[in-house]
C-alpha cells in the first residue's frame, strides 16, 4: 500500500521518544516522522527531522505541521510517553478515514497506568463537544487538506490553545469520527482520581491557558453562528406572589453524616426578609429521614418534603422543591454534603439578584476535607465567567460554579432535567441564553470532598456517560442559540 501518512510527535525523554519513533518508522504507511520541540534532546534516528517550535500545542507548531505535511493524511501524537500501535492500527485508521471522508479520526485504545493495562474507550464527538479537555486519546489522524485549510485561518497566535483551535476549525467543515476499536496503547502518568482532576480548569495556576481556550472557543462560536452578544432580557422581580423572599433547597438521600451540618448552616442565616429551608428527602434509608423530622420540629422554617414518586434524580428533587407552595421568590442551592461559610450567605445572594438584575446567581466556594480543613485548589471562584462573555464561555467549561440560586419564576418555566449529574449545568446554560447570570466571587460555602461524593472516584464507563450527557446538553443549547441567531 502506498505510504500516505506524515507523523508528528513532541520532543521528550530520549528513551521514550526513541521507542515512539521506532514504532512509527516501522509502519508501512508512514512516509515521514518529524519531532517538534524547542531543541533536539538527542541525535535523532536517520530519516527523522527535528522542527523547532515552542510546542505542539502552539499555533506556531500547528502551522509548521500544516506546512510540512504533503501526504494525504497527517498523524499527530500528543504525548511524550512511549506509543505502541496495535496490529494494522494505522491501516484501520486510514481505511475509516477514506471511507468516512472525516476531517479527523480517533479511536478507543488501551492505557497503561501504574503498570496495569486496561481498556480506555472514548466517546463520540458532537457539535456540543466544545470542552478543551475532550479526550480523543493521543493519536489523532487528520485529513491533511482539512488540516491545512484550518491552519490557514488561524490569525490568533496561541501558546497553549493551538491544537484546540485546530480541532474546532476542522470540525466546522468536517466530521470528527471515532473508531470504537482499541487500536493502540498509551501510557498515563496522571494517577489522580476523577474527583481530584475535575477542578483543574479552575485552578488559578492554569488561568493563562484558560484565557486562550476561551478566545479559541469564542472565535469558533462566531464562525458557526452560535455566539451570543452581551444583550440580556431585563428581569422583572414582580412575577407572582410568594410566601417568603427566599428558599434554600437541599435535595438529599442517605446523608446522615453531613445533612445536619448543612441544615444548621441555614438555620444560622441572618437576613432582613423571611426565608425558609426546603429539604427534599428522596426516600432515605440510613436515618436521614428521622433526623430531618427532628430538625423540622426544632425550627418551623424547615419544610421536610418526601416525594410521592420514587423515580427522581437530583434534578427531579429540585423540581419538587421549586414547585412546592412554600417556595420563595428565589431558590438557593445547598448540597447535603456542604455548609454555608457564615451567616450572611442568603442575604448576599438575594442582594445580588437585585443589584445585578439577573435570573441566576452563582457564588464561589472553598474546597475542604471532611474535617473542614482547606484542601487544594482552595477557592473555586470561576473567574472565567465574565459579564460580557460568560454565557459563551459556558459552552466550553464543565460547570458554572456554586452555590447556585435562581429567580423562581424563570426556573419554574425552564424546569430542571430529572438526572443526578449535569442538571445544574443544563439549567444554567438555558438561563444564560436569555438572561444575565450574576456572580459573587467571595466564598459562600464550604465544599466538603470525601469518599462518598458522587464524583469522587468514577470508573471510565461512568465518566464517559457523564461527559456524553454534558456534551449532549451543550449540543442542545448550541443548536438553540444558532436557531435564535438565524431568526
Description of the molecule:
The strands form 2 sheets. Strands 1, 2, 3, 4, 5, 6, 7, 8 and 9 form a 9-stranded mixed sheet that branches. It is elongated and about 80 Å long. The protein contains 15 helices and 18 strands. A hairpin with a 5-residue loop joins strand 15 and strand 16. The mean pLDDT is 93. It is α/β, with parallel strands linked by helices. 34% of the residues lie in helices and 23% in strands. Helix 2 crosses helix 4, helix 2 (59-68) packs across helix 5 (162-171) and helix 5 runs parallel beside helix 7 (207-224).
Spell out the key features of this protein.
487 residues; 9-stranded mixed β-sheet; elongated; alpha/beta; 2 domains; Spore Coat Polysaccharide Biosynthesis Protein SpsA, Chain A
What is the fold's blueprint, element by element?
Layout lengths: L4 E6 L3 H12 L4 E8 L10 E5 L6 H10 L4 E5 L6 E2 L3 H12 L3 E10 L2 E5 L18 E5 H9 L9 H10 L4 E12 L6 H4 L9 H18 L21 E7 L6 H9 L7 E7 L6 H11 L3 E4 L8 H9 L7 E4 L5 E2 L4 H12 L3 E9 L5 E7 L9 H4 L10 E4 H7 L8 H10 L4 E12 L11 H27 L1
Parallel strand pairs: 1-2, 1-4, 2-3, 6-9, 10-11, 10-13, 11-12, 15-18
Antiparallel strand pairs: 4-8, 5-9, 6-7, 6-8, 13-17, 14-18, 15-16, 15-17
Helix pairs in contact: 2-4, 2-5, 4-5, 5-7, 14-15
Number of strands: 18
Rg from C-alpha positions? Answer: 25 Å
Tell me about the biggest sheet? 9 strands, mixed
> How many structural domains does the protein architecture include?
2
> Which structural category fits the helices and strands?
alpha/beta
Helix proportion of residues, in percent? 25-40%
* Overall pLDDT score: 93
Task: Let me know the CATH homologous superfamily of the largest domain.
Answer: Spore Coat Polysaccharide Biosynthesis Protein SpsA, Chain A
List low-confidence stretches: none
